[in-house]
From TrEMBL:
Catalyzes the removal of elemental sulfur and selenium atoms from L-cysteine, L-cystine, L-selenocysteine, and L-selenocystine to produce L-alanine. It catalyses: (sulfur carrier)-H + L-cysteine = (sulfur carrier)-SH + L-alanine. The lineage of its organism: Bacteria, Bacillati, Actinomycetota, Actinomycetes, Micrococcales. This is Cysteine desulfurase. Its cofactor is pyridoxal 5'-phosphate. PANTHER family: CYSTEINE DESULFURASE (PTHR43586), CYSTEINE DESULFURASE 1, CHLOROPLASTIC (PTHR43586:SF8). It holds the Pfam family Aminotran_5. Its EC number is 2.8.1.7.
Length: 435
């Protein structure tokens, strides 16, 4: 945990406090279908508090300008805001200032790593990039539970380099353990990419053990932190991963911005995946040299207002306490799992409530398609997610095409979980699936 995030003495996030915080989010005050909105789709995108909206608007109305380019006052102010935002976000995730690169999103960040390794494997970056090179006989290891954003780039990297893509299979619950992963790590393993927290099962990966295994064979670790950074204390230095990615819109911040974290020495080894303005040193008609990280990975016009807003989101979450947010959500998640599983004809994907998990529950309703479940809940003013959640292989392994996911955050109350449980208990009867 970082100083920015809070200490373990953060006040507990009670239902009363969650209701107070709800007032900070303008969109949550509305009614849907004539009833107060119960927003349980935070795993897809989080809503933004007024403080984040205000921060971006203030920047746009007072300092908006291109950064690192102009010699005028607005450009200087904008550049100061931009780099201060980098410092805030870096501190929030336990990283150094120059280990944070702005990206278009977490998907973009993961592609930056995969495409950079592909470039290194073609010889780009010279001797400095040699530790990242892949070729025939090398292996990339992921899990069957990965989001497509942490699967497809590695498929492409394998195709580009001749490396072999291997995966840790999930069990009948859709989860895996370190004992499943360990035998697949060999002296041929060069990359291990995995989600810190699954967006379907809520499984919390054993990061420390995976990092230790990777280090024992000289493999690179790439962490999809999209479902962890918004919801629990995260310190990348303490975790020891080589690269990590997370997005702004899942942590009460703006769309259009994500973060690539890389240990300094790894960023220095990684060739850029995108090229253009802003990230160059010298350009001639014959060749180009590139800036040092993190600027090397920030080609083009920068997402300045988005960075400012993301920093505001970090400050907002830190004031509440990431440990308090984690504890609140895990309690809600455990309750959803236990009580949904107790409803006849409902099966929650993932481990039972006795195993720590994040504050989400993806479930299957016997005889009713997930999209019908979602529409039924929407009629009760409960917003959830329906589909494969960008995890088709996981759903295919379980023999289903889709599931319904309810996901909580700092504003979620037990009353909203009550409403979800009551509505779900009537679904099968409504659709005649209980006959």
């Amino acid at each position: 945990m970082t100083d920015t995030q809070s200490s373990l003495s953060s006040p507990a996030l009670t239902d009363a406090r969650a209701l107070e915080l709800r007032a900070d989010f303008p969109i949550l005050s509305q009614q849907v279908h004539g009833k107060p909105l119960a927003y349980l789709d935070f795993g897809a995108t989080a809503q933004r508090p007024q403080a984040v909206l205000d921060a971006e608007l203030e920047f746009l109305t007072r300092h908006n300008s291109a950064v690192h380019r102009g010699a005028h006052e607005l450009a200087a102010l904008a550049t100061g805001d931009f780099e201060e935002a980098r410092e805030v976000v870096a501190e929030f995730v336990g990283a150094d200032f120059d280990e944070i690169a702005w990206q278009a999103g977490a998907t973009d960040a993961l592609n930056t790593v995969a495409n950079g390794i592909a470039a290194a494997s073609r010889g780009r970056g010279g001797a400095a990039s040699a530790p990242l090179r892949l070729g025939a006989g090398d292996e990339i290891l992921i899990t069957e539970a990965e989001h497509h954003a942490n699967l497809v780039p590695w498929q492409e990297l394998a195709l580009a380099t001749g490396a072999t893509l291997r995966y840790v299979p999930v069990n009948d619950r859709g989860t895996w353990t370190i004992d499943d992963l360990r035998p697949l790590v060999t002296d041929r393993t060069r990359v291990i990419a995995f989600a810190h927290v699954s967006n379907v099962t809520g499984l919390i990966a054993p990061v420390a053990e995976i990092v230790e295994l990777a280090a024992s064979v000289g493999a690179i670790t790439v962490l999809d932190a999209c479902q962890s950074v918004p919801h629990r204390p995260v310190n990348f230095h303490e975790l020891g991963v080589d690269f990590a990615a997370f997005s702004g819109h899942k942590m009460a911040g703006p769309n259009g911005i994500g973060v690539l974290y890389g240990r300094r020495e790894r960023l220095e080894q990684l060739p850029p995946a995108r090229t253009g303005g802003s990230m160059i040193e010298i350009v001639t008609m014959a060749e180009t040299t590139f800036m040092a990280p993190p600027t090397r990975f920030e080609a083009g016009t920068q997402p300045v207002s988005q960075a400012v807003a993301l920093a505001a989101a970090c400050r907002y979450l830190s004031a509440i306490g990431m440990d308090a947010i984690r504890d609140h959500e895990e309690a809600l998640g455990a309750r959803m799992v236990a009580e949904l599983n107790a409803i006849e004809g409902i099966t929650v994907i993932g481990n039972d409530a006795s195993v720590p998990r994040s504050g989400l529950a993806a479930f299957i309703v016997d005889g009713v398609h997930a999209h019908d479940v979602s529409q039924y809940l929407d009629a009760a003013s409960i917003a959830v997610r329906a589909g494969h959640h960008c995890a088709q292989p996981l759903h295919r392994r379980l023999g289903v095409t889709a599931s319904t996911r309810a996901s909580s955050y700092l504003t979620t109350t037990n009353a909203e979980i009550d409403a979800l449980l009551e509505a779900v208990s009537g679904i099968r009867s409504y659709f005649g699936a209980d006959r």
